[in-house]
Amino acid sequence: MATEAHGAEQGGGLSFHPMDQFIVKPLFGDGPIAWYTPTNVTLWMALTILAVIALLVLSTSRRAIVPSRGQSIAEMAYGFVYKMVEDVTGKDGIKYFPYIMTLFMFIVCANFLGLLPASFTTTSHIAVTAVMGFGVFFAVTILGFIKNGTKFLGLFWVSSAPLALRPVLAIIELISYFVRPVSHSIRLAGNMMAGHAVLKVFAGFAQVTAIAPIAVLGVTAIYGLEVLVAFIQAYVFTILTCVYLRDALHPAH
Amino acid sequence: MATETQEAVGEGLADATGVAAHQAGEAAGMPQLDLSTFPNQIFWLVVSLIVIYLVLSRVALPRIGAILAERAGTITNDIAAAEDLKARAADAEAAYDKALADARSEAQRIAGEARADIQADLDAAIAQADADIAERTAESEKAIAEIRAGALEAVNTVARDTASELVAALGGTPDADAIGAAVDTRIKG
């Protein structure tokens, strides 16, 4: 079936493979993918780590009072996430700042590396974002029960609503609470995947001479949008993490 | 490219190897939903996150935090030092003003003293001069009185002599007493 579909496309003179960029391939050879196999996922995650190290460690190695360009970026990233945690979660959320910074730096670097031509976007995979999303979900839920005990369930019992409405609201709150990790992870993966697929589709249209200029313009425009999306999605993921963390620390509405 | 060759293999051989068929099927659908790659991705993701967390919590975040704190400290210290210097400058200005005012009043005092001294000297000199003048005036008046007395005597003598001569020349005998009485009478007016 799959091969037929490919054949039909190639018969039309156009070959679109917008999803090929997301295929997980082994780096060496052509074997089955076991959990330990070094794949393009491994490669691009390693590059992400290197990018994070270059941004936050190498650029600050001089510890200058008057910062260089690179050090300014590191300080801005630090200040940006620190302020976010402080503003959204509160003072007692500061001790979770390293975890949130880890998530933010990983996502933002992976997103921007994914924008390089011919690269592989690790954050476009639901497996990756779901691990982070559910990781945040479980961490926050367990933390909520540890910090507040059964009072954490007060999150679902809206005490400011009329008594008759409260059970209904409790069900809605409960459902929305459990949907959180799903929306949290699908939002990031979906945005990244959709943007990259659209880029590839426009690039595919560039094969036809007549519409090539429009297609190239489209690629340029979408790329610009994707640069924005790459940052905004990292920001959204991080700030939602902060919001969930605040709910865990202060469950009262 | 790779998928195309695999596709060709797939088309050519109905019984393609499992791997090739697997890859071709993957290319058509969403690679994101290929569950066989999940363990691999999850494993490497967890490794990456742990590495990033260790790098951030051990090296990057303490270092950046220290840099920011140090900068804040430097700025605070600089501002404090500037305030200190400003206060010192104000103190110095006040001291200068005070010294200036002191010097001015001292100068005024010295000038006043000098003026008083000079006035005293002047008064003494004037008094001395007045005394000298009065003394000289008295001397002069005395001399004038002597001279005036001398002149009256001389007039009297000359008048007597002249009168005696005249009396003798007219053939009389000059009587000294009579002539003296007549001269005295005439001189008195």
From TrEMBL, chain A:
Q: Which InterPro entries match?
A: ATP_synth_F0_asu, ATP_synth_F0_asu_AS, ATP_synth_F0_asu_bact/mt, F0_ATP_A_sf
Q: Which CDD domains match?
A: ATP-synt_Fo_a_6
Q: Name the major location.
A: membrane
TM spans, by residue? 41-59, 96-120, 126-146, 153-179, 199-220, 227-246
Q: Name one Pfam family in it.
A: ATP-synt_A
User: Record's SUPFAM superfamilies?
Assistant: F1F0 ATP synthase subunit A (SSF81336)
Membrane topology according to the record:
Multi-pass membrane protein
- Give the superkingdom in one word: Bacteria
Keyword set for this entry? Answer: ATP synthesis, Cell membrane, CF(0), Hydrogen ion transport, Ion transport, Membrane, Transmembrane, Transmembrane helix, Transport
Q: What are the subcellular locations of this protein?
A: Cell membrane; Membrane
What is the protein's known function? Answer: Key component of the proton channel; it plays a direct role in the translocation of protons across the membrane.
Which HAMAP family does the record match to this protein? ATP_synth_a_bact
Family of this protein:
Belongs to the ATPase A chain family.
The name this protein goes by in its record: ATP synthase subunit a
Automatic annotation (TrEMBL), chain B:
Compartments reported by the entry: Cell membrane; Endomembrane system
TM annotation in the entry: 42-61
Q: Main site of residence?
A: membrane
- Keywords for this protein: ATP synthesis, Cell membrane, CF(0), Hydrogen ion transport, Ion transport, Membrane, Transmembrane, Transmembrane helix, Transport
Q: How would you describe this protein's topology in the membrane?
A: Single-pass membrane protein
Query: What's this protein's function?
Result: F(1)F(0) ATP synthase produces ATP from ADP in the presence of a proton or sodium gradient. F-type ATPases consist of two structural domains, F(1) containing the extramembraneous catalytic core and F(0) containing the membrane proton channel, linked together by a central stalk and a peripheral stalk. During catalysis, ATP synthesis in the catalytic domain of F(1) is coupled via a rotary mechanism of the central stalk subunits to proton translocation.
Q: What family is this protein classified in?
A: Belongs to the ATPase B chain family.
- Outline the subunit composition: F-type ATPases have 2 components, F(1) - the catalytic core - and F(0) - the membrane proton channel. F(1) has five subunits: alpha(3), beta(3), gamma(1), delta(1), epsilon(1). F(0) has three main subunits: a(1), b(2) and c(10-14). The alpha and beta chains form an alternating ring which encloses part of the gamma chain. F(1) is attached to F(0) by a central stalk formed by the gamma and epsilon chains, while a peripheral stalk is formed by the delta and b chains.
UniProt protein name: ATP synthase subunit b
Q: Which gene encodes it?
A: atpF
